[in-house]
Amino acid sequence: MAIDIQNSLQEACNALRENKVILIPCEMGWALGCDAQSSIAVEKMLSILPEDDQEAPTLLVDDDRKLNRYFKDIPEVAWDLLETAMKPLTFVFENSMNIRQELQGEKNSIGIRISKHTYISALGKKFGKAIAAIELYEVSKEERSKIQDHVDFTHPGEADDFEMDGIDVIGIRPNGQVTVY
Questions:
Q1: CA 115 to chain centre
Q2: Both ends of the chain: CA-CA distance in Å?
Q3: What CA–CA distance (Å, rounded) separates 136 from 74?
Q4: Which residue ranges make up each domain of the chain?
């Protein structure tokens, strides 16, 4: 059965706008997602998995122009890295803004990735804002089924339609100091 991607994107976008939590494919397999600015949605997303099982939340955006909406003074080295990147980069920046504090780490830091995944990129364009995501690395179908009971929308397809040779995670401090994780 073919998946109606446009319908799936519309349903996911509606769920995000209604402060709901979604389960979507991403570069790393599957991810829980919600509106990064909604306290209701963030609280619900963070409650789905035990804290010990959670990866640090990441913001997913579709376009590098959205970086300035969520971070003050992005160091020039980040723009240079984006121009030369061969695969998706997750930047960890300090001094985040316009996102829920529950998502932020030390010094108001959080990771953000300009997604290369077709579905996430299209959803980001349609939604117009960052999606807060907790990536579920290599989740089994059985585990995904259990998680689906706690979310408001699940993408109807599989996550294996996007092959990526990993993601680089790079921390950049306000002074331009770079750390590769």
A1: 8
A2: 40
A3: 28
A4: 5-180
State whether residue 55 is helix, strand or coil.
coil
At 25-79, the pLDDT tens digits run 888 889 999 999 999 999 999 999 877 767 789 999 999 999 999 998 899 999 9
pTM listed for this prediction = 0.90
Sequence-distant (≥ 6) Cβ neighbours of residue 23 within 8 angstroms:
30, 31, 32, 33, 144, 147, 148, 151, 153, 154, 155
List helix spans (H) across the chain: 5-17, 39-48, 67-70, 76-84, 118-127, 141-148
5-180 sits in which CATH class? alpha beta
Q: pLDDT tens digit string along 115-135?
A: 988 999 999 999 999 999 998
